[in-house]
Amino acid sequence: MLERRLDGETLVTVYGRCTVEYDGRAASSLGPGDRLLVLKPDGTALVHTTENQKPVNWQPPGCTHEVSLVDGGLRVRSERSTPAEELRVAFETVEQVSAFDARDEEDLALTGTEEDLRQRILDDPDLVESGFRPLATERETSAGAVDVYGEDREGRTVVLELKRRRVGPDAVGQLVRYVEALRRELHTDAEIRGVLVAPSVTDRARELLGEEGLEFVSLTPRASDD
Amino acid sequence: MLERRLDGETLVTVYGRCTVEYDGRAASSLGPGDRLLVLKPDGTALVHTTENQKPVNWQPPGCTHEVSLVDGGLRVRSERSTPAEELRVAFETVEQVSAFDARDEEDLALTGTEEDLRQRILDDPDLVESGFRPLATERETSAGAVDVYGEDREGRTVVLELKRRRVGPDAVGQLVRYVEALRRELHTDAEIRGVLVAPSVTDRARELLGEEGLEFVSLTPRASDD
DNA sequence: AGTTTAATATCGAAC
DNA sequence: GTTCGATGTTAAACT
């Protein structure tokens, strides 16, 4: 039944006591225990234990799944190339095998992302500071694309780095790279301001901002009356 | 049956046609489709479609799950506080409901991690460069802990930043922060070398290394005869 | 196929 | 509890 249903159209689940071996980018071994194996029609494989949101082992979409019987026990093997990766699940006991004809056309509608934060700023630039004028989004520099590029009321160049949630030192590093790249590329004597826009910052990130002469503006992706 | 089995000891799966609403750190809405709902004993909730490794919607461990019947349809609600987040799954049809008494004591044994790379270097420092002497791991600086701290054959301070796989500009930014922090804190005139140790680097990362006067050494977490 | 960055990232450890 | 960095991160956009 399983072999027939690994046809790229069926969602398969197997529940039972098994061991799991993985070899690829890393390598792992998992002793016997009760787990849920999910084989998706797109070639994804997931091994879930009783704990955690992440599967304990997995294969990404695009893999090929095979089943076999060894000493009366079910074996499932999933593999891919580039990079070469292999997952082997050996069941001692199987409590349940299911195959579902799945139909799902709907796309997820998600809000509260960095893109929403950008749109909020473009709709009302005064949220950043009075007189701020956005000139471009995703403006290219040698250090990568700047989220929002614009001018303040005095005509000084302003670079915004947007984050949808509280930020640590990594985001400051990103902003530093953009500001330094623009200073080199615009080769102007005029000041370039770098502003991190996020709901809040950690202490270490705030220190780094001070050391680098950068600024912070508190803003969330969602309107306060949400 | 479901209410009785949401007892913190049972793994529950529900398969059927449903809609999903999420509100919390972000917010999302998903129209009707066939999906697999997994409720773990640790309070995790997963909604899986036919595609992708990641669930289309989820709740992290520690949430409380509730079930109810509305107009003859099964509803599942999962919520948590700090941050306040809620997931609602409304089933039109239910093809299967399962409850499994799960027993799993085994821990995953994973190799090929950054920790393995560190151990490789401590076992044979010459892999980094002839004469390199590691003095400390996780050495604290104001910018965070340095992976490996040591001296080269001439006695110059060397900072290693380790990555288990090919690295981009972000890792260079991290190394820059550590080297700058040490230059301030050691307030010495002597040179401090920063070395990125990883299997490979992207072009942009290599440029950044050059601009910052940092170095790169190619090394993987696993021995070449693996 | 490779690069870059966002993410409801997740997860674990240190504080 | 918050902060910080690794992750077999995943996933999407772009080259």
From TrEMBL, chains A, B:
Family annotation (CDD domains): NucS-like (cd22341)
Domain Endonuclease NucS N-terminal PH-like: 11-107
Key word Cytoplasm present: yes
Endonuclease NucS C-terminal domain: residues covered: 114-221
Keywords: Cytoplasm, DNA-binding, Endonuclease, Hydrolase, Nuclease
Protein location: Cytoplasm
InterPro entries documented for this protein: Endonuclease_NucS, NucS_C, NucS_N, NucS_N_sf, tRNA_endonuc-like_dom_sf
Recorded GO CC terms: cytoplasm
GO MF, any single term: DNA binding
Keyword Nucleotide-binding on entry: no
EC number, as in UniProt: 3.1.-.-
Function: Cleaves both 3' and 5' ssDNA extremities of branched DNA structures.
Family: Belongs to the NucS endonuclease family.
UniProt protein name: Endonuclease NucS
Organism: Salinirubellus salinus
Gene: nucS
